[in-house]
Amino acid sequence: MNFAFTEDQDSLRDVVRSFMDAKSTEEDVRTLMDTESGYDPAVWAQMGGELGLPGLHIPEEFGGQGYGFVELGIVFEEMGRRLLCAPYFATVALAANAILNAGTQDEKAALLPGIASGETIGALAFTEANGRWDADGITMVAKGSGSDWTLDGEKMFVIDGHNADVIVVVARTEGSSGEDGISFFTVAGDAAGLTRTPLATMDQTRKQARLEFKGVKATPLGAPGAGWAALSKTLDQAAVCLSNEMVGGAQFVLDMSVEYAKVRVQFGRPIGSFQAIKHKCADMLLEVESAKSAAYYSAWAAAEDNEELPVVASLSKAYCSDAYFHSTAENIQIHGGIGFTWEHPAHLYFKRAKSSEILLGDATYHRELLAQRIGI
Amino acid sequence: MDFRDSPAEAEFRDEVRTWLSEHLVGEFAELGGRGGPADERGWETRIEWERTLGRDRWVGCSWPVEYGGRGLDFSQQVIFNEEYAKANAPARVSFFGEGLFAPTLIAYGTDEQKRRFLPKIQSVDELWCQGYSEPNAGSDLSNVQTKAVLDGDEWVITGQKVWTTLAHRADWCFVVARTESGSQSHRGLSYLLVPMDQPGVEIRPLRQMTGSAEFNEVYFDEARTSADLVLGEVNDGWKVAMATLGFERGTAFLSQQLAFQRELAEIIGVAQKNGSNREATIRQELADSYIGVQIMKFNGMRMLTDLVKKGVLGPSSSIGKLFWSNWHRTLGERAMDVLGTDGLLVANEGNGAYELDEIHQIFMTSRAETIYAGASEIQRNIIGERVLGLPREPR
Questions:
Q1: Whole-angstrom distance between the N-terminal and C-terminal Cα of chain B?
Q2: DSSP B100
Q3: In this predicted model, what pLDDT tens digit does every residue of A355-364 receive, in sequence order?
Q4: Min Cα–Cα distance to chain B from A270, Å
């Protein structure tokens, strides 16, 4: 038994942390969150070119580096620390995983090298206006046969949907319901009949779009009708990635709180000497450390692709969502009035925590999913 | 990162499993996961079970080989504890001797002291209790008022200890006493080893909210012990006492989650039987408890990895104590939610006794767990000051 990162993994963390410290400063985040696209193409190009981050866990035969989810988790954690504004989660955690899980060998060979190199930005369009994260939430019907399919309808809350070059769309075959009939397709970002509208997001550091499909020609990804297992696995893997991202942010706000509690003086004492504040920080540490344990373990289960993955993915998403939100909320409280201002970064993490909690299903949703998965 | 056993670990696990399957049979097996220091049912059988363990050096298995132990490393200790829990073997009555006193003795005792006491702890011929808390020294432990003065070649001890688990069964007590007259706080204390069977020691049981009485008050009225039965230096006992607390908060919790898992599974079973598992709130609560016990396992594995690397657990063990005690307390409350109106009644019917079934036991004993071995508030101070480096409270 060994629950530690290897030296190589620690080096990867160092490299990514240095990059994020340099390229995703608070100032960068504030600049990008005010833009419609929400990312810096120059930074994205460096992530793809020099660092090879989009291809990190994509197999070498498809142009990637062939690492696994433990390494990917490290990258997400470091991005979460700095609230990186980039279509990395949409491209790698969602689109690339969907293609890896659903696609045929030929489809993977056609789609993945562009993603691995950073040239192709991807998105996964599965959520609809009903806001559900399960199979029943997918109501968009795909009509067609063979390689000739057409999509009509609307997808909502599509992360980086307006930035994507290739959109993986989840729809269902006519007359199907529940987990039957779930199908994957790919559509080019500029496809005829597709209207993409950027949405006004509560968390400005991660952009979303509404996608309207009117007679859009779509290419099947895998066999239409048999996609639920691949989608379910993709959502579990994405939940693992998001959990690791949340852990990075949670540690960052804990550090912020502790530093402030050491230097802020009231009643002639640093506020961190008062148990009211000290105990809040202690509880935050307990939650952040526990969230790390869950996130890292779930990354290992994803890397091993073992039978534990569905359970630990839901476990991790539920726990990390609560821990991250609680940390960011306490961070505001510990900072007092200054923590409530627009100028202070506390609200950026608070909003990212809430949006991350909701995306892919909130803690309540995942606890119920977990209850089903362990047979309560 | 790899959560599977190494070949050597797998081999050791197999050895433990085989031993347990051969010895945990008959009346020993019937004891089930019973007990812990605060449960006296099946006492004689449990003593006999622990003697069986001791004969094959599984009591004291972490001690150095020269003192009769097996010299198990941290990973092996955890594997032993895991297999012990999986086999549903009874919790130990000799915990205070084996788990708390012995490691302190090994760290601070003289060779002579080790050879005097360790063999009888291993053979379970001598049981120990812990003389720490006093009426005015609870969380503020250094406010100990029990005094000891030298009279020729003996210490004469006078004072009162409280919450002393199993004092009425123990042969010896490790006592923190003030040996420097007029000293205050953590200075001037010594760690004395005092025999319990003597005229100067009076034990009065304290009945707990559970109805049973494993706790005691211990009154020392000129009790005596030999001058050489002091662990560490005279007047420098605080660090020895703290070392014991370190063991108390120490590695045992790394595998504790296995017993908790079994409790949760039983509660889920009750919910499935009485249909409360169909209620959304109950489902949320049980799933959350499941998440907690799994995280306890993951945290334990991370801490063990750290322990193997660094050799000490340090103040981060406070995170473990805080986590498990709160988790278990919440489990007790949720178990009562699952019981519903069945929770209004205790096990016995009309015989006048107050006997608790397992769920009521969890519900009530867990209220003590956030208090003993350093209350949650003390753990948060330790985490805040020694892990996060926050300033101490002015005193």
A1: 44
A2: I
A3: 999 999 999 9
A4: 7
**What's the CA gap between A286 and A274, in Å, rounded?**
18
Q: How many CA atoms lie within 13 A of B290 on its CB side?
A: 27
Helix and strand element counts for chain A (H, E)? 12, 9
Average pLDDT of chain B, as a whole number: 92
H/E segment holding residue B317: helix B317-339
> How far is the C-alpha of B322 from the C-alpha of B287, rounded, in Å?
20
ipTM field: 0.96
C-beta separation of A84 from A20 below 8 A? yes
Decide: residue A268, CB within 10 A, 0-12 exposed, 13-18 middle, 19+ buried: exposed
Count other C-beta atoms under 10 Å from residue B43's C-beta. 12
CB contact under 8 A, A1 and B391: no
Phi, psi (deg, nearest 5) at residue A285: -60, -45
Phi, psi (degrees; rounded to nearest 5) at A6: -80, 170
Asked whether the beta carbons of B249 and B321 are under 8 A apart, the reply is: yes
Taken in order A375, B1, B4, B10, the sign of the CA dihedral is negative
**End-to-end distance of chain A based on CA atoms, in angstroms?**
29
Query: What's the mean pLDDT in B176-182?
Result: 97
**pLDDT value, residue B31:** 86
Pairing of strands A166-173, A182-188: antiparallel
Give CB contacts under 8 A, 24+ apart, made by A356-360. Answer: A356/A203, A356/A242, A356/A245, A356/A246, A356/A249, A356/A321, A356/A324, A357/A321, A357/A322, A357/A324, A357/A325, A359/A157, A359/A159, A359/A242, A360/A133, A360/A235, A360/A238, A360/A239, A360/A242, A360/A317
Residues A160, A207: contact at Cβ < 8 Å? Answer: yes
Residues of A in contact with B394 (CB under 8 A): 269, 273
Q: Six-digit token pair at A217? A: 């020609």
Beta strands in B43-171 (DSSP E): 128-131, 147-151, 154-162
Q: Is the pLDDT of residue B198 over 80?
A: yes
The pLDDT, as a whole number, for residue B247 is 79
pLDDT tens track for A300-341: 999 999 999 999 999 999 999 999 999 999 999 999 999 999
Spatial neighbors of A190 by CB under 8 A, at least 6 apart, are none
Contacting residues of A for B75, CB less than 8 Å apart: 1
B248 is an active site residue: yes
Q: Which residues of A touch B (CB under 8 A)?
A: 1-6, 70, 258, 261-262, 269-270, 272-275, 277-279, 281-283, 285-286, 289-290, 292-294, 296-297, 300, 312, 315, 318-319, 364, 367-368, 370-371, 374, 376
Buried b (16+ CB within 10 A) or exposed e, A188-227: ebebeebebebeebebbbbbbbbbebeebbbbbbbebbeb
pLDDT in tens, A131-153: 999 999 999 999 999 999 999 99
Put simply, whether B280 touches A (Cβ < 8 Å) is yes
Model pLDDT, residue B34: 63
Distances from the Cα of B190 to the Cα of A146, B186, B230, B270, B383, angstroms: 85, 10, 7, 50, 27
Give me the residue label for tokens 């030999």. B226
Q: Match 């949760």 to its residue by tokens.
A: B264
